């Protein structure tokens, strides 16, 4: 198995330490913004979003004049995160108390729950927990003004969509337009697999964003030291490849493939039996809990939960057992299909093994989140994606190639989400004190201004921009297979995404955002920044000044190691930034894990469906084409073995065709 990402974390304990009123770092950050009417909290699983909502909701009830707090969760099981909680024992001014009749995340009909919602709205009760569905159904029976002076909190906000057919999205839009309701939206993944935006741009602009990054969360743990995201490509049956990636000594969740996927055998129960055979010999099923006891091949007794079996008598027993796990020895392996993802809490989990391509980034974020809980004795968390390798003889090689490349693409974005986040700070805002790690100073003292909007985008929305870029599957596939020049991505596809997401930016602001994003990617690819004061004594330094070795011109500057030289990021040439292929890491993984013949097959499959050269791309590539002709003393060839040369040839043919058309018009 080859890890695309391996991140070491600082084990500072900051994210789990409490302040004097019982708040962890993320919760205190969110509480600081409590007076805002619309709050969007973006924070990882296990960062404490549910309790952050309790603190904010109670403050709005006690100090901001609101009368009710309504918490909506996607499914009943997640409602338990918002049960009555003693907060005063940790220093907060009051407790979170939910009356049993106001917990609608229980069994019962939709009608009875809507009735319960209506009773709550007409009563003096202050806190209600329900599902997204109950909120939608009840909303249809009430007037929008009934929600005046209420806080509506939406957990797992990525279930909302600006799509006209998404009723929860329409509900939020109506509340914002026609009521005085306050809204707190919470999510660990502000992406949707269907690429539909969560909110309309004009609605999202009204939200105050509180962002707590995965890197902050994981670095602040006490025990977890590292995280890996990796791939294993297999041929034949995935069952036969399990032994290469499954270590039964690790607490593992195995997600078998969807029955409609190419990796599935179409017999989910047979797949579970085959996995159990790989683990060892089944000894018994506990009649009280439904847990399987397996004699492992190393002699250890394993406890295995089968969540694939949807037997109405067995599954509830297993789920009940899993909800009450107290110790590491209580369970060893969980085998699941659609379960054990969102909202499932098993802190001892060390490894999530996912078989087959998952199209939804949100789903992958949630799956990885199952392994990234902090826990005594757990130093490393691992996500492994077991993916079918295309067979050059297979008629369906194109579909296999697409799945392989899209799976790698999705985790490339996870690499950015889980690694240290580059933060941008104007030099005019810097007081000269030591900068936080991975902070880039933007020089705005020499006439170039950087707007607040640009800073907000660079410091808070980079991942959303990259997620939207990755939604362009053709561009991404060509980029990973390296069949198009990086300039086609950095100067054509990326600006198009930025313009679509932020149409109100000026051309100068768009270029600042574009360069900032590419600079972040380049920094990540080169291993991060080095502060001027930390440069090695014998460093080969390029500051852009003649007196390169003096102390005066390295203080307060950041450097990037490129080869044997440390280059001041203030002096990064635009050509270097534009030459960044955001997906180069994926190509390296691909080229290391498959042989040359397979790599050629993948490139050919991508080239067979490649996108047409646009006028913008042709203009961008023209200097490269001229340079190619100068170096090789010939035009680029459409029959070349190098796919980049082929792209140059296609662009040249496009340019000549456009020139002929213009000459024909002039002649007419």
TrEMBL record:
Q: Does the keyword Ribonucleoprotein apply?
A: no
| UniProt keyword list | ATP-binding, Helicase, Hydrolase, Nucleotide-binding
Pfam families in the record: DEAD
GO MF terms listed in the record are: ATP binding; helicase activity; nucleic acid binding
Domain Helicase ATP-binding: from-to ranges: 19-213
Q: Does the keyword Hydrolase apply?
A: yes
* Name of the featured protein: ATP-dependent helicase
Q: Which organism is it from?
A: Pseudoalteromonas aliena
């Amino acid at each position: 198995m080859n890890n695309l990402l391996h991140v070491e974390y600082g084990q500072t304990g900051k994210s789990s330490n409490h302040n004097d009123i019982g708040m962890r770092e993320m919760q205190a950050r969110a509480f600081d913004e409590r007076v805002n009417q619309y709050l969007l909290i973006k924070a990882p699983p296990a960062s404490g979003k549910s309790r952050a909502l309790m603190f904010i909701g109670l403050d709005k009830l006690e100090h901001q004049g609101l009368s009710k707090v309504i918490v909506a969760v996607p499914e009943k099981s997640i409602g338990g995160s918002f049960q009555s909680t003693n907060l005063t024992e940790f220093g907060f001014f009051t407790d979170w108390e939910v009356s049993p009749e106001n917990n609608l995340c229980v069994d019962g009909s939709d009608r009875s729950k809507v009735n319960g919602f209506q009773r709550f709205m007409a009563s003096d009760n202050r806190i209600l927990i329900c599902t997204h569905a109950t909120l939608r159904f009840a909303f249809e029976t009430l007037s929008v003004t009934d929600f005046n002076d209420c806080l509506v909190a939406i957990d797992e906000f990525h279930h909302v969509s600006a799509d006209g057919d998404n009723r929860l999205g329409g509900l939020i839009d109506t509340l914002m337009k026609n009521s005085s309701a306050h809204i707190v939206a919470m999510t660990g993944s502000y992406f949707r697999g269907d690429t539909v935006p969560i909110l309309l741009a004009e609605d999202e602009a009204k939200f105050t964003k509180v962002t707590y990054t995965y890197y902050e969360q994981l670095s602040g743990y006490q025990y977890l030291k590292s995280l890996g995201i990796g791939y294993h490509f297999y041929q034949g049956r995935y069952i036969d490849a399990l032994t290469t990636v499954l270590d039964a000594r690790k607490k593992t969740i195995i997600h078998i493939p969807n029955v409609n996927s190419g990796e599935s055998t179409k017999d989910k129960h047979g797949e579970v039996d085959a996995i159990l055979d790989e683990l060892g010999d089944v000894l018994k099923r506990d009649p009280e809990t439904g847990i399987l006891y397996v004699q492992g091949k190393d002699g250890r007794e394993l406890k295995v939960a089968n969540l694939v079996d949807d037997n109405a008598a067995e599954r509830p027993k297993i789920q009940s057992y899993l909800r009450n796990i107290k110790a590491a020895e209580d369970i060893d392996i969980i085998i699941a299909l659609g379960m054990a993802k969102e909202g499932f809490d098993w802190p001892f989990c060390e490894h999530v093994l996912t078989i087959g391509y998952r199209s939804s980034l949100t789903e992958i974020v949630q799956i990885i989140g199952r392994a990234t809980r902090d826990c005594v004795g757990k130093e490393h968390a691992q996500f492994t994606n077991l993916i079918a390798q295309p067979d050059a003889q297979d008629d369906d090689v194109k579909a296999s190639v697409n799945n392989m490349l899209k799976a790698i693409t999705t985790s490339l974005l996870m690499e950015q989400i889980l690694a240290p986040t580059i933060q941008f700070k104007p030099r005019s805002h810097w007081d000269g004190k030591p900068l936080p790690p991975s902070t880039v100073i933007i020089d705005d003292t020499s006439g170039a201004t950087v707007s607040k909007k640009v800073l907000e985008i660079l410091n808070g929305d980079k991942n959303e921009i990259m997620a939207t870029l990755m939604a362009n599957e053709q561009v991404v596939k060509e980029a990973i297979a390296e069949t198009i020049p990086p300039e086609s991505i950095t100067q054509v596809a990326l600006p198009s995404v930025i313009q679509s997401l932020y149409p109100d930016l000026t051309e100068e602001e768009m270029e600042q955002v574009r360069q900032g994003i590419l600079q972040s990617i380049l920094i990540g690819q080169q291993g991060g920044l080095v502060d001027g004061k930390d440069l090695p004594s014998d460093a080969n330094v390029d500051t852009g000044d003649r007196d390169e070795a003096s102390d005066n011109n390295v203080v307060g500057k950041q450097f990037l190691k490129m080869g044997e030289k440390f280059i001041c990021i203030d002096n990064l040439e635009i050509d270097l930034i534009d030459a960044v292929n955001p997906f180069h890491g994926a190509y390296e993984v691909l080229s290391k894990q498959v042989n040359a013949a397979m790599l050629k097959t993948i490139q050919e499959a991508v080239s067979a469906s490649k996108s047409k050269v646009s006028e913008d791309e042709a203009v961008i590539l023209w200097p490269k084409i001229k340079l190619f002709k100068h170096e090789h003393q010939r035009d680029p060839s459409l029959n070349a073995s190098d796919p980049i040369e082929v792209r140059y040839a296609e662009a040249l043919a496009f340019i000549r065709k456009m020139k002929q058309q213009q000459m024909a018009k002039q002649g007419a």
